[in-house]
Amino acid sequence: MRENDLSAHMYNKQRRKYNSALGPQGKKAKNLLHRRFDTHLPFQKIVTDVSEFRYGNKTQEERVYLSPIKDLCTDEIVSYNISKHPTTDFVVKPLDALIKLRPKLNYRMTLHSDQGVQYQSVQWRKKL
Fold first, then answer.
1. Strand, helix or coil for residue 119
2. Domain boundaries, the chain
3. In this model, does residue 98 exceed pLDDT 90?
């Protein structure tokens, strides 16, 4: 890291951490998993979230966002998107990929996320 003039900094009170719950609030979905994350059926329980990663130096810090979709049966990331902005389109793209990838099932697939503003949007709910 020294050779490339890179440094890592811990978050402090002056640096605001990404919080997807900030912003306009829409409809909140019920928690159907209730922390029961184990399953033996593929594509039965799917989870997603948005993570923020910071990189660069103090004078020009950059941010990038990751939105993975994970199958809890296999612990495999089945779809993801990376973007410089955590928009609703950013989280819908991996959902579109999941829909194309998902096989025909004789049981319900449950997609679990936090209550971030992207997951409360009309666009997200219509896609589901």
1. helix
2. 45-127
3. yes
